[in-house]
Amino acid sequence: MLLSLMGSSAIVLIFVPFLTKGFSFHPREVCYLCAVGSGIVATMASLFFYFALAKGEATSVVVISSLYPIVTFILAAIFLAESFTIKKIAGMALAIAGIILLSI
């Protein structure tokens, strides 16, 4: 089901702009590489999620998988020089503490 939702979203994002008047799209090779790369990564993420659901408890797997904003925040801090604030650090610490409490 998740893969079908992702596919539907991709179709909408790709074809809706072509329906608007005056829209011109001139893709470059980099665009194709990014599209293929993101498709591969999204498919792998879905497969790993389903594998984790098959092997572990759903309550733990879903909570751990919902922590992707922490990874996003860390990467944004590294590559985009975003600042660490007390609220963001406290939020990450509480989320990690929640995972630890669920695993006990």
What's the arrangement of secondary structure elements?
Layout: H1 2-19, H2 29-55, H3 58-65, H4 68-79, H5 86-103
Q: Could you describe the 3D structure shown?
A:
With 104 residues, this protein is mainly α. It folds into two domains: 1-55, no CATH class; 57-104. 80% of the residues lie in helices and 0% in strands. It has helices at 2-19, 29-55, 58-65, 68-79, 86-103. Helix 2 (29-55) runs antiparallel to helix 3 (58-65). The longest helix is centred in the middle third of the chain and has 27 residues, at 29-55.
Give a quick precis of the structure.
The protein is an all-alpha fold and 104 residues long. It has helices at 2-19, 29-55, 58-65, 68-79, 86-103.
